[in-house]
């Protein structure tokens, strides 16, 4: 209002009110600018640009709508109590096995407790196939790969890689997530899907930890697809020698053809690792095979459990009926989070 002369008492009062309001707004704007520069957004480098970082406190289960290929899916995510909607959190995709569900996968793995302990978000998208002969089981539609139990491969089903990409977009819009710290794990068929994501979404997923289902070509089967990530992908995996569903030494034609050690060796080649692995006895029943010094600082690590079947290491209980013993000498959750924490995009 500089240079403006008021000509009456009423006009002067109105102008004074306008000036006071303008001053308050200016102070508020300066405060917001200072907060953007000095607060959590500036410290993290991503919160300000992330529409999910809205400062909303949300804990427990959250349903996030995901639009993909003309359909809308509701993907469940578990948000830890420490989440404040302002500081971006790591995200772990936890993919269920064949003839299972996301809720069952969380119960099997216990990753909710790990999320609370370490402050990450867990999402449980579900496969695009209804498992034959069940009322709720799902399976991942991986091109050319028959389902467990001899069911034939689906034709023309959902593009699962595209769906997971759309899921990551939707989660990022809804929640305060760190795009540099997105990880994936999965069990059995979900481990195979995790392997495929490592081949196809390496620009978005920093590291993977498939359990009881590592593959290195994305599809296996008679016509495997080449695995060509755009960057070396750190891989941690676990497998039991007594696994009858996905035998350690391979041998199931068209669904499971080569051994777990061969899968690890192939990933070491993909990641340009030294050809010789280092083997270490971890405990009575567990051996660690590690390819380190790989391109981009990646590593490929396999934990072999001589006493375990088709199970999740460290899960509750001692045995899963029909699938064998659970190794309790190591915890897949603890080892994978320590591994994930070493890597960011």
Give a verbal description of the structure.
With 345 residues, the protein is α/β, with parallel strands linked by helices. The protein is built from eight helices and 14 strands. It has helices spanning 9-38, 40-44, 102-109, 111-118, 160-174, 189-200, 260-270, 332-340; strands at 60-68, 71-79, 89-95, 121-123, 129-130, 138-139, 177-187, 207-211, 235-240, 278-281, 286-291, 300-305, 319-320, 324-325. The strands form three sheets. It has a ten-stranded mixed β-sheet with strand order 1-2-4-3-7-8-9-12-11-10, with helices on both faces. It has a two-stranded antiparallel ribbon with strand order 5-6. A two-stranded antiparallel sheet has the order 13-14. It starts with 8 loop residues before the first helix and ends in a 5-residue tail after the last helix. Residues 1-48 have low confidence and may be disordered.
Produce the secondary structure layout.
Blueprint: H1 9-38, H2 40-44, E1 60-68, E2 71-79, E3 89-95, H3 102-109, H4 111-118, E4 121-123, E5 129-130, E6 138-139, H5 160-174, E7 177-187, H6 189-200, E8 207-211, E9 235-240, H7 260-270, E10 278-281, E11 286-291, E12 300-305, E13 319-320, E14 324-325, H8 332-340
Task: Describe the structure concisely.
This protein has 345 residues and is of the alpha/beta class. The protein is 28% helix and 21% strand.
